[in-house]
């Protein structure tokens, strides 16, 4: 009986930890108030709210444009998809970069690999 309870607890705990998903990747952005070549500058923060790291985080970059270059180690734009941190693990600490365009792009997370 004791062993059964321990196993049950273990299963519950490990399920709790694997409850990480793409929705734990939070993207927030705001206007810096500055302009670059006449375009508004935006600061983007990408944070992983999950207890586990997530790798290969990709964002929807449909139509994404910027007049301010972004370090490829932070964001690699390839067609409609952007890769965050060159696919490296994202922890709780925020990844931060700037871009500059007339309008804000949603940069919605579209896929990631959860590594628990
Ligand atoms: C955006 O995320 C960063 C890093 O987690 C945080 O410091 C900042 O307060 C957030 N801004 C908003 C508007 O939520």
UniProtKB/TrEMBL annotation:
One of its GO terms (biological process) is cell fate determination. InterPro entries: TPD1. Residues 1-18 form the signal peptide. It comes from the Eukaryota. Pfam families: TPD1_C. Keywords: Signal. PANTHER family: BETA-1,3-N-ACETYLGLUCOSAMINYLTRANSFERASE FAMILY PROTEIN, PROTEIN TAPETUM DETERMINANT 1-LIKE-RELATED. This is Beta-galactosidase.
